[in-house]
Write a structure and sequence with these properties.
Length: about 220
C-alpha cells in the first residue's frame, strides 16, 4: 500500500519547536502516527491524576513510508496501514516527536497490533496486518482436583493461552511480496505459546494479538 505525500510549497511545518519547509516523510516501513490524548477521567467519571493516567498507545496514521525490501529477493514489501486509519501499538514501541504542535510517534509497521476505522475500536471494525491474528482469550475459572475454583489471575502463568480467532491478517509476505496464506481462519479455536502476544481490550473483553509462528495448534 503506497502512501503518496502531497507537499504544499507555501506551507510551513513545526517539528520539535522549529519551522521546517517540508512535512515529515517516513522512510522504509516507518509510520507516522498522531497520538490520541490520554483521557482525564474513566468511563465511570472518575478523575485521573497525572500519575494514574496510562500512556496512550492509540493514534491516527498521518503518513507511511514506501515499505521495506525483502533481503533476498529485493521485492518491495509495502506497509499494511493507510493514512487516516487508527492503530494500536505496543506501549514501548516508537520514537516520540513533537510535530505540528501535538505528540506524534514514529513506529515500524511491525509494531502495529491492530488497526480500525472510526473513533472507537469494535470487533466489527478491527483489522490485522501481516501474519497477526486477534484471539478472544478464555478466562473461565478452572477447578482443582479438590473442587476449589481458581480465578484466571491466580493460575500458573496468569495469562490465558487458548481462545477463539476473531480476525486474521493477510499473511506474512513471501519473497515476491505476496502474502502467505494463513493456516487459521476466523472462528477457529487455537492454542498458542504461554506469554505470547500482546494484550488488547475491546469493550469489556480481553484479547491477545498473536503471530502465526506463536500459534501451536487449532481445534
Amino acid at each position: 500500500m503506497l502512501s503518496i505525500l502531497v507537499i504544499d510549497p507555501l506551507a510551513s511545518y513545526q517539528l520539535e519547536g522549529r519551522t521546517v519547509a517540508n512535512p515529515i516523510e517516513p522512510l522504509t516501513n516507518f509510520v507516522l502516527v498522531r497520538v490520541d490524548e490520554t483521557p482525564d477521567e474513566t468511563d465511570g467519571g472518575i478523575i485521573l491524576t497525572k500519575k494514574a493516567k496510562k500512556k496512550s498507545t492509540t493514534g491516527t496514521v498521518v503518513a507511511c513510508g514506501p515499505g521495506k525490501t525483502h533481503p533476498d529477493s529485493g521485492h518491495l514489501i509495502s506497509v499494511g496501514v493507510l493514512p487516516g486509519e487508527k492503530v494500536i501499538y505496543g506501549e514501548f514501541d516508537g520514537t516520540e516527536v513533537d510535530y505540528q504542535g501535538s505528540k506524534h510517534t514514529l513506529i515500524r509497521d511491525d509494531d502495529v497490533l491492530v488497526k480500525f476505522n472510526g473513533e472507537k475500536i469494535t470487533k466489527e471494525n478491527v483489522g490485522m496486518t501481516a501474519d497477526k491474528m486477534l484471539v478472544r482469550v478464555e478466562t473461565k475459572e478452572q477447578e482443582t482436583t479438590g473442587g476449589l475454583l481458581i480465578a484466571p489471575t491466580s493460575q500458573k502463568g496468569s495469562r490465558p493461552s487458548v481462545g477463539e480467532v476473531v480476525a486474521v491478517g493477510p499473511g506474512r509476505p513471501a519473497m515476491n511480496g505476496e502474502p502467505i496464506e494463513m493456516d487459521v481462519v476466523k472462528g477457529d479455536m487455537v492454542k498458542f505459546r504461554d506469554f505470547a502476544g500482546n494484550e488488547v481490550q475491546i469493550g469489556e473483553e480481553d484479547f491477545s494479538v498473536i503471530r502465526m509462528q506463536e500459534c501451536l495448534a487449532k481445534y
